[in-house]
Design goal:
Layout (H helix, E strand, L loop, with lengths): L4 E2 L5 E8 L4 H11 L10 E7 L3 H11 L3 E2 L12 E4 L7 H10 L4 E4 L6 H14 L3 E4 L6 H12 L2 E9 L10 H15 L3 E9 L2 E8 L3 E7 L7 E6 L3 E5 L5 H15 L6 H20 L3 E2 L4
Parallel strand pairs: 2-3, 2-5, 3-4, 5-6, 6-7, 8-11
Antiparallel strand pairs: 1-2, 8-12, 9-10, 9-14, 10-11, 12-13
Helix pairs in contact: 1-2, 3-4, 4-8, 5-6, 6-8
Length: 300
Amino acid sequence: MYIKQYIPNGGMAYRVGIVGSDNSHAIAFSKILNDSSDPNHVPGFEVTHLFGLVESRNEEVAKLGGIKNIVSDPIEMIGKIDIAFIEFRHGGLHLNYARPFLEKGVPLFIDKPLAADVSDARKIIHIAREKGVLITSFSTLRFTSLVSELKDLFKREEPAFLSIMGPADPESEYGGWIFYGIHVVEMFNEIVGCGTREVFAMRRGKSIMATLDHEKVLGTIKTSSEIPNTFAAEGVTRRSHLIKKLDDEPYYMKGMAKIKEMLDRKQCPLTEQEMFEPIAVTKAIEESILSGKPIKVETL
């Protein structure tokens, strides 16, 4: 399904092809995978190929990330890489660029969001399942201490309320609210698991607040593009009350380590439903804002 390449120091590295140079993650991920002097370096990878739609940006990313090969068509990477990272900011591009790799059995990491709508998300998951391809998609904020502390608390004690807050622009040019709103939805999903049944949301200016009816907890999500660029969470149980702000920590490194673990173990770190449900929740929130009504969350 994928190949390992021997590298000069006697170790082994997974060869990575990045598809989509517009995303800042194209540089950030390349640096921590290619530069052994980077304090957040994750060994066992080499980003070897890059594709993007703007040549000047491709050259910038390749230079800063230490990427040797820029290709004019992502298909040129097949047979030369062990995993593709789909990095385009706009989730509406993800299905079309992921499909050739899925069809050829190349493992995939699809950066958040998995897709721009539930239809594309289903197609990606169904093709991966049909072809037996290793695939994962996540916001690296799933792997922060903020999330893990609340997750552990809710395992020890019965949860009552969960609230996640962060920045997001409902008018983002990269597909609207889902581009950054997916962060807070994935954090919610990681803490309490799948099981959000219905949402009700409202918008005032650039600010959005949504109530989530989850099978285990009542939740709220609050975002705005007019607040400080930080994430925070509040969890309440019958005995405890925890409020935590996101610290400056190496969550990119943690995300890359999850991808390496997937390749080493040949096991996807997230279930199909864990990848799909955040997309369904974000789209339900958008629909609720437009309709002014509660919206049921679609299932896979």
